Amino acid sequence: MRVPLSWLREYVDVPGEATPEDVLAALVSVGFEEEDVFRFELSGPVVVGAVLSFEAEPQSNGKTIRWCQVDVGEAEPRGIVCGASNFFEGDKVVVSLPGAVLPGPFPISARKTYGHVSDGMIASARELGLGDEHNGILRLVELGIDAEPGTDAIALLGLDDVAVDVNVTPDRGYALSIRGIAREYAHATGATFRDPASLPEIGSGSGFSVVVDDTAPIRGRNGVTEFVTRAVRGVDPARPTPPWMIARLTLAGIRSISLLVDITNYVMLELGGPIHGYDLDKLTGGITVRRATEGETLETLDGQVRKLSTEDLLITDESGPIGLAGVMGGARTEIGETTTDVLIEAAVFDTVSIARTARRHKLPSEASRRFERGVDPLLPAASAQRVVDLMVQLGGGTADALGSALGVDYSRASIALPAGFVQGLVGVDYTAARIAETLTLIGCEVVETVDGWAVTPPSWRPDLTDKWTLAEEVARIDGVDKIPSVLPTPPSGRGLTPAQQGRRRVANALAAAGFVETPSFPFTSEEQNDLHGSATGDHLPSVRLANALDGQTPFLRRSLIPALLQTAHRNVARGHTDLALFEVGTVFLPKPGVEYGTTTIPPMAVRPDAETLARLDASIPPQPRHVALLLAGAVAPKQPGREAEAAGLEVALDAVRVIAAAAGVEIAVAQGQRAALHPGRTGVLTVDGAEVGYVGELLPAVAADADLPGRVTVAELDLDAILAMAGERVTVASLSTFPAATQDVSLVVDAALPAAALRAALVEGAGDLLESVRLVDDYRGQGVPAGSKSLTFALRFRAPDRTLTAAEATEAKLAGVALATERHGATLRE
After folding, report:
1. Which of 31, 447, 558, 667 is the most exposed place for a label (fewest CB within 10 A)?
2. Nearest 10 degrees: CA dihedral of 476, 480, 484, 485?
3. Is residue 195 over pLDDT 90?
4. Statement: residue 732 has pLDDT above 70
5. What is the mean pLDDT of the segment spanning 497-505?
6. Where are the alpha helices (DSSP H) in 272-365?
7. Which residues bind Mg(2+) (predicted)?
8. How deeply is 505 buried, as exposed, middle or buried, from its count of CB atoms within 10 A (0-12, 13-18, 19+)?
9. Is residue 680 part of a domain?
């Protein structure tokens, strides 16, 4: 809301020396947010001039200029070149003398042009910043101004005014007016407030028919509660808008149109109640307020023919629709250059109805902005009277007895405000007298009761609905800077849950291993869900969003891999080809044949019982947390004397082991298959025989579809399942200070035997002395029987209480080999 300070000073005592920044600071102290300061961007000598004479001089370019002699209050007239032709000898005009700066900025200086030295410039309204129209230079006689040459035109036209701009939140629609801002400035400073709606006399009209026929109210509320009409006859449509009004409207962000329209806009800004004016001679019969019927149309003031909805509230006469109620008037009854008799409408419309209409037609307006936030229901009569007074005063009209006053008796229920409630909520020790004083200051009626107060909010504050909003007002007016800053005491507990701790360990471990976490949106396509969310590639059910952000990805993901592929694609497109990415996130796995989201949501004010909560839980699909990773490019770049090391399957398996160690489980790998992965380069991951994920290399076609060059390796694990299996396995062991004994063993086994099975036998047979076992070689070739393979493991033995001998380490190794032979027919390779 832009507020010209000269206008504000009419209704509240703003000190003459107060700067715009001082006014903004005062408004900020009562909860408004400052936006900007607006001025007419002109300075220097801008004065009234009288055109003494001029000579028309045609030019070779086809243009005719006037060489003018202009009296600017100096000893000698000034010679000025002007290209306009809409003025006459003796006219008073606005002259910008050398040294002035007009909006643009456009500095004025004496300059030679068209064979003359032009010693200044005769200005138009647009060049002065008074509007967008450029119909020639500004003649002061058209504004009803007669001033002596040399008079300061900046002050004469109100161009020395300044406006402050504050952000008005949606719940405080009353502040979209000079009346509201003046009242708030008074609250902030204690200055005297004079209500512009308190007029000496407020008349009423009769004899004009107004009927409300709202057969389809929204939320059970009629679309209109107050509807006042007044008439003014004999207005002179040629009278100009006074310059002070043009300046104030311009600073407030509204373009001057004509005197009659400007008056309605002026009163809307001043009091906060939108006003609409009709050309009375163009009306047919009385007015009916009703909902639109199917197929009706209306041409609005902007020249658009709009197809109406049956929810739209209309202003109609006997000929049909003449306006979208509270949003925009119709073109047929528009006030124009020939209008002499005006019907003034001041009404209060339902907030929801107006908001829906404005959004439906994409037609926001100054009127709808105020109506959808709530207009003072006691304002229409005063607003209409203010318009009548201005049209009589400035337009030469006569107030007519014709009019109407349709409305309902206004009343508001009081709000119980218990003693001590405000202090307990805000944390400031307000006295009872201060609370009552503050609420009275903002316009409430405060009556003391046995246990507190009964508070009746004023008509212009529909946002005050309960004891909490009243407490907020006390804190706002008394000063939010007085509220102490107190850190809340954390509730007692154990901090993070075991599952939360486990997820953090896994994420931190992967980050420490060189992977970069890339969180993403959980949206994907059905095709990607089938490819990556199903082991076989067959279709599985997915959750479709009712209002998707992107029409191409309307499903919730069954896998984290599609998002990692998108992230990798973005990085590769920007030249970053060596990638090690991971994400920990939720996937959505609806069960086939189960319909989700059909349970009725319980009311917000009622705590649901256990049965209701269980029903709500059953109405959403399982949402386990997964961890996934992606590798592409090189894990180690090319260096002098060393080739680049590709990030392949073995690096992904190491990352899986990092996850297993952080979670506290042992993950076994066995060869498997998945639809999106390369056959023979795919591993199934298990914990205690239960499948928990997979690792493998993407099919070249899948990588190509994602625009990823080279080999791409991925892995995805059910993190919730892994952490649940880990239980309390994560323990911290003491580091042994004794040296380790290392030995290798090469075993020949059937080629189809998974290395993990052989490793498990070695671990179990070797016993507690075995500290680690790692597969270091898989050999198939000369010296190994056909259909067999030789697997070499590096074994490390250590005792917690002594230094192991070579014999003890060998004995433990052979025990492991013996169990491997027993279970899998393994033989030592010679």
Report:
1. 447
2. 120
3. yes
4. no
5. 91
6. 351-360
7. 463, 472-473
8. middle
9. yes
Question: Quick check: 217 pLDDT over 80?
Answer: no
Backbone angles phi, psi at 126, to 5 degrees: -70, -40
Are 115 and 66 in contact by the 8 Å Cβ rule? The answer is no
Mention every residue, 6+ apart, whose C-beta is less than 8 A from residue 139.
Answer: 86, 87, 91, 92, 93
User: What is the spatial distance between Cα 321 and Cα 622, in angstroms, rounded to a whole number?
Assistant: 54
Task: State pLDDT tens for residues 297-347.
Answer: 999 999 999 999 999 999 999 999 999 999 999 999 999 999 999 999 999
Looking at the fold, whether 286 and 337 belong to one and the same domain comes out as: yes
Q: How far apart are CA 759 and CA 264, in angstroms?
A: 89
Residues 666, 815 within the same domain: no
Q: What number of other Cβ atoms are within 10 A of residue 83's Cβ?
A: 14
Predicted pLDDT at 731: 56
The H or E element spanning position 326 is none
Rounded CA separation 103/530 (Å): 63
How far apart CA 498 and CA 725 sit, in angstroms, is 12
| Same-domain check for residues 69 and 150 | yes
Residues 227, 290 within the same domain: yes
Q: What is the pLDDT of residue 130?
A: 83
- Cα separation, 589 vs 718, in Å, equals 12
Instruction: Give residue 54's domain range.
Output: 46-156
Confidence of residue 402 (pLDDT cuts 50, 70, 90): very high
Q: Which long-range contacts link 293-302 to residues 24+ away (Cβ below 8 Å)?
A: 296/320, 296/321, 297/321, 298/322, 298/323, 298/324, 298/330, 299/330, 299/331, 299/332, 300/324, 300/328, 300/329, 300/330, 300/331, 300/363, 301/328, 301/329, 301/330, 301/331, 301/334, 302/328, 302/363
- Do both 264 and 386 map to the same domain? yes
- Tell me the average pLDDT across 702-707: 92
Q: Are 166 and 5 in contact (CB under 8 A)?
A: no
Find where tokens 């976490």 sit.
Answer: 517
Which residues carry a binding-site annotation for Mg(2+)? 463, 472-473
Please provide the DSSP assignment of 89-142 as one string.
TT-EEEEE-TT-EETTTEE---EEETTEEE-SEEPBTTTTTS-S--SSBPBGGG
Task: Examine the domain organization and report whether 422 and 507 are in the same domain.
Answer: no
The CATH number assigned to the domain holding 178 equals 3.30.56.10
Query: Which among 418, 429, 410 has a CA at the least distance from the CA of 455?
Result: 418
What is the count of structural domains for the chain? Answer: 6
% pLDDT > 90, the chain: 74
Count of other CB atoms within 10 angstroms of residue 414: 15
- What CATH code is carried by the domain that includes residue 242? 3.50.40.10
Side-chain half-sphere of 366: how many Cα atoms within 13 Å? 21
Q: How far out from the chain centre does Cα 165 lie?
A: 20
675: its two tokens:
């639809």
- Sign of the Cα torsion 258, 260, 265, 270 reads positive
The whole-angstrom separation of Cα 709 and Cα 2 is 57
Helix then strand count (H, E) for the chain reads 21, 42
In this structure, the answer to whether residues 58 and 139 fall within a common structural domain is: yes
CA-based nearest residue to 123, from 146, 157, 147: 157
Question: 184 and 27 in contact (C-beta within 8 Å)?
Answer: yes
Residue 477, in any domain of the structure:
no
What single letter denotes the amino acid at residue 94? Answer: V
Q: Is residue 194 part of a domain?
A: no
Q: Are residues 348 and 446 in the same domain?
A: no
Q: Sort residue 41 into left (φ over 0), alpha (ψ -120 to 50) or beta.
A: beta
